[in-house]
Amino acid sequence: MTGTPPPLALLVVTLLTAAVNVGIAAADLAGARFVLANSAEVGVPRSWLPWLAALKPAGAAGLLLSLSDAAPRLLGAAAAGGLVLLYLGALAVHLRARVLYNLAFPGFYFATAVASPALTVYS
pTM above 0.85? Predict the structure, then answer.
């Protein structure tokens, strides 16, 4: 017997969160000019980028797995929690470096990551 499908809001937010994290991880790994410029401006060493990039698709994979009946939805909450911590760190680094003009980008990723566990717990 299959479980109940996830609510539509959870499905949409989870898919959005996974997609944006895979996208920015690809940009990180490809060494996109905007990623390199931004990381240098906020003081993140270039050598950290592959490690930070690896966390993003890992979180996305946990979110996507949590949508299936084979994995507990709590897995999605844990994956999103990891992304929340990652983006809290990004926000803190931007604030510490006083690079505020592009704070919306880590803020957006943070917001999608926060919405995912909130909806997982709510559902």
Answer: yes
